[in-house]
Amino acid sequence: MKTELDIHDYQCWYLDNLQYQDGLLTLTLEESSRVVEGQNEHKRYLLVFSDTIQFQIYDECDHQQNFYNQREGGVVGLHGDSSLLKYLKSETLIFDTTPGELMHYSVMTGNEFIHVITRRVPQVINAT
User: Which pTM value belongs to this model?
Assistant: First the structure.
């Protein structure tokens, strides 16, 4: 998914804040200090998932080699197929109890990967 965040590689972003309440997941991403040398302020973006069904966070180094298979490029990417979706379909009732099409997005930063299951496309808001 092409977004304003793609001005840098994912390793140039870090997760500054995460808030979750009642299906609303808001991630605050900020530029790494090594990118903004000589500038007065870091660029900061809010990434808003307004219909979060499930999310998980893990260390950037803990992903499997096939993490990028079936994933769009960019800091925010939609997975065409994923083991997480397969797991949720076979081992949970989420697909039976949640109407609508579930999508798997992942957000990559220099320190964390955030996986989000949602029914809506996320919004990227410049908060600089």
Answer: 0.88
What separation in angstroms does the CA of 115 have from each of 22, 32, 81? 17, 21, 13
| Strand partners of residue 126 | 45
For residue 14 the two structure tokens come to 């870090």
Please tell me the distance from the alpha carbon of residue 43 to that of residue 47, in angstroms, as a whole number.
13
Q: Tell the residue number behind the tokens 């220099």, with chain if given.
A: 110
What Rg, from alpha-carbon coordinates, does the chain have?
A: 15
10: which DSSP letter? G
pLDDT tens string 41-85: 789 999 999 999 999 998 766 566 556 667 888 999 999 888 888
Q: How far apart are CA 48 and CA 83, in angstroms?
A: 24
Enter the DSSP assignment of 71: B
Range 80-103 average pLDDT: 90
